[in-house]
Amino acid sequence: MQIVLRALEKEASLTCDMCLGEGTGAVAYLPVLELAAEVYEKMSTFSENQIEDYKELGDK
Q1: What is the pLDDT of residues 37-57, one digit of tens each?
Q2: Does residue 11 or residue 22 have the better pLDDT?
């Protein structure tokens, strides 16, 4: 990108001191967060599925 900007005699309008992949990784992760939130909101509980609550076994 720096080569293109130099050739066009322009400067980046927004850099945020990011390196390659930081911005794209953040944008690619948004659908994962949305999916996780939807699963969390719509999943059923143990009692709704007639599963008894977890009880820890053994000595502590």
Answers
A1: 999 999 998 888 999 888 888
A2: 11
Helix residue ranges per DSSP H, the chain: 2-7, 22-42
Q: Which residues contact 1 (CB under 8 A, 6 or more apart)?
A: 12
How far, in Å, CA of 8 to CA of 10, rounded?
5
Q: What are the backbone dihedrals phi and psi of residue 46, each rounded to the nearest 5 degrees, phi first?
A: -60, -45
Overall pTM surpassing 0.70 (yes/no): no
d(CA 45, CA 53): 10
